[in-house]
């Protein structure tokens, strides 16, 4: 029998998925109640307790952060971006954007290089050091658990430590990390991170969803996980500045090819970093 705590988690996962899919549209109380199977008052409390912010605050954050991605990675006008992410007009967008990031969208659009520097990344040349492969990855169903954290937070390790305690098929299972917010968005990234497995656990029913299904720039990182940030630094402060590609708003995916369960030495661990492309 599924206990009340697990049932609450399912209602939160369903609500999060609804907001992520429709963040750029008005979401009705009826729709939230339908996916969560709770009254709005109760799901609002459960969501705030579980995620640290209200449903409305999470939707607003997704709007301004996705707008920031469009400012950085596309040539669209601010008015077009404002309407695309769900704001009624440029004025309301500008107010929300400045409240969230402490900078106007106009200044953000005209000062991209400076915004990279605020992430404490040292700009490097993209020339020969990084050569991603452009790949198409088919849709894949995964089973997952989530946490809202700072990306460099030890809670990621704790999430994986708890996640792999489940009984997954040893040979057939692939493992992924889904990063809902990009490392560039702010100085200290608060993200929703999903620990995912390609096979269901035998000991507990986990929530599932479809990931991938599109084009990605694939970078390979060899070595320990605590050096992953070095590769992200080269991507975001170097390669991405000159690549000429446009990126979709889908989450970044980390694919753990060689990990602690299938390789003995940390130096031999291999992680694919997948940046979603249009």
Automatic annotation (TrEMBL):
The keyword Transcription applies. InterPro entries: AraC_E-bd, GyrI-like, Homeodomain-like_sf, HTH_AraC, Reg_factor_effector_dom_sf, SmbC-like, Tscrpt_reg_AraC-type_HTH. SUPFAM superfamilies: Homeodomain-like, Probable bacterial effector-binding domain. The keyword Acyltransferase does not apply. Residues 13-111 form the HTH araC/xylS-type domain. Pfam families: GyrI-like, HTH_18. Keywords: DNA-binding, Transcription, Transcription regulation. GO terms for molecular function: DNA-binding transcription factor activity; sequence-specific DNA binding. Coiled coil: none annotated. It comes from the Bacteria. This is Transcriptional regulator, AraC family.
